[in-house]
Fold this protein.
Amino acid sequence: MGLTSGIVLFAVFWFMTFLIVIPFKLQTQGDLGKVTEGTHAGAPEHHNLKKKAWITTGIAAVLWAIAATVIFSGWITVEDLQVLDLGGTSPLEQSQ
């Protein structure tokens, strides 16, 4: 895994985690009974995005570290992921 693929993998983990973390402890205008005219009752009143972004960064860093460890250690290789044998040779086998 190179630098660019490491950054992309971290970004994928970060955004997936962020989309999961956003709804936790979200207080909507409807929950608080203070719906501003012209807005939906489900619009957030208190979202705490900065705190959620820091939590997301920590979780994504742990997930990225686990994935990077598995990739660099060779515990799981491309050959392990090859579940469909379509009768042909893989590019890895052709180069050897």
